[in-house]
Amino acid sequence: MIYSIIILNTATRNGLNMKKLKVKALAKINWALDVIEKRRDGYHNVEMVMQSIDLHDILLIEEKAENGIEVICNRKDIPLGSENIAYGAARLLKEAYGIDTGVRILIYKNIPVAAGLAGGSADAAGVLVGLNRMWDLGITSRGLMSMAARLGSDIPFCILGGTALARGIGDELVSLSPADGIWLVLVTPDFYVSTGHIYRSLDLSRITVRPSIQDMVMNLEKKNLNGIAGCMQNVLEQVTLNIYPQIAHIKADIMNQGALGCCMSGSGPTVYGIFPDEKTARKGHEVLKQRYSQCYVVQTKAGGIEIVEEV
Questions:
Q1: pLDDT (0 to 100) of residue 7
Q2: pTM of the model as a whole
Q3: Residue 38 β-bridge partners
Q4: pLDDT under 70 in the chain at which residues?
Q5: Predicted local confidence at residue 4, as pLDDT
Q6: Which residues are CB-contacts of 298 (< 8 A; sequence separation ≥ 6)?
Q7: CA dihedral angle for residue 83, residue 19, residue 76, residue 145, rounded to 10 degrees
Q8: Rounded distance, CA 25 to CA 148, Å?
Q9: Measuring CA to CA, which residue among 160, 284, 276 is closest to residue 229?
């Protein structure tokens, strides 16, 4: 209800015709994640296969007469000022293009926070795509992705969407054949994981088994579900498991519901299982949601950010 109230008030304020957009910001999973080396700047070079899923946040982006940026969210634990990455995305465009129009960003969070699903990055990507449209800036997708890399390594992929091979710090992207329509069940435990802490705890010399990125790409192109399941691997998983052993129990629970394979996304703690069909996925979800408060049945998607309404 917070959104309908605010839209009504802003749409009629002082008789001004303020532009508005409604945007879907899609989450992601990692089909496979390998960490290649630590860089001199402290970041890590990775090689991974990323995938958009239909779990999404809703953004309502509105112009306002007074200059400035305002962020409103349905969750109390989300920062609303300059520390919010969606705020940073709006500021980046305003400063780069000299925009003196104000903007209000209303975020309805469905994507779990600090969960390895790029929820904050998706919101920032949604703001970049939405404001590019709202203000007729004419920035290409590649141009937006280049700007996005200044804010966070997952944001360029969230703009690109679909299925992609990622290298560098995650910002060197190559689109792959769409692997949409695959059924997954996600479980996010009720604790947060710090990506920085997981990477700092990673000892590259102790990694003995790495994912085959080439085999994953091949199986995704064929939509060979058993092949995909066999290639799902994340070198960060063992690090996160050592800190949060509960993840092993969640994986076992998902596999017991008929999943073909199970893997952690990003630095965690979200775990996802790949299922052979919708019926099996929904049946497994019905059981798992009784045990886990954050449990979702989703499909993979071919796109990323979606502008669903423009006024």
A1: 37
A2: 0.92
A3: 44
A4: 1-17
A5: 32
A6: 53, 54, 55, 183, 184, 185, 186
A7: -40
A8: 14
A9: 276
Residue by residue, DSSP assigns 277-305 as SHHHHHHHHHHHTTT-SSEEEEEB-S-S-
**CA distance to 150, 174, 182, 236, 304, per residue, from 163 (Å):** 22, 9, 12, 20, 9
DSSP assignments along 225-265, one per residue? HHHHHHH-EETTHHHHHHH-THHHHHHHHHHTTT-SEEEE-
C-alpha of 100 from chain center = 29
SS3 label, residue 33? strand
Catalytic (active site) residue 215: no
Q: Per-domain residue ranges for the chain?
A: 183-299
Helix and strand numbers (H, E) in the chain are 11, 12
Q: What is the pLDDT of residues 171-202, one digit of tens each?
A: 899 999 999 999 999 999 999 899 999 999 99
Q: What is the pLDDT of residue 310?
A: 78
> Which is catalytic among the residues 28, 94, 251, 301?
28
Q: Which fold has domain 183-299?
A: Alpha-Beta Plaits (3.30.70)
* Both structure tokens of 127: 């703001």
* 28 catalytically annotated: yes
Give the per-residue pLDDT at 16: 54
**CA trace torsion 80, 82, 87, 93 (10° rounding):** 170
**Catalytic one among 34, 154, 171, 253?**
154
Q: Which helix (H) or strand (E) holds 108?
A: strand 102-108
Q: Which two tokens stand for residue 76?
A: 């109390």
Distance CA 90, CA 128 (A): 7
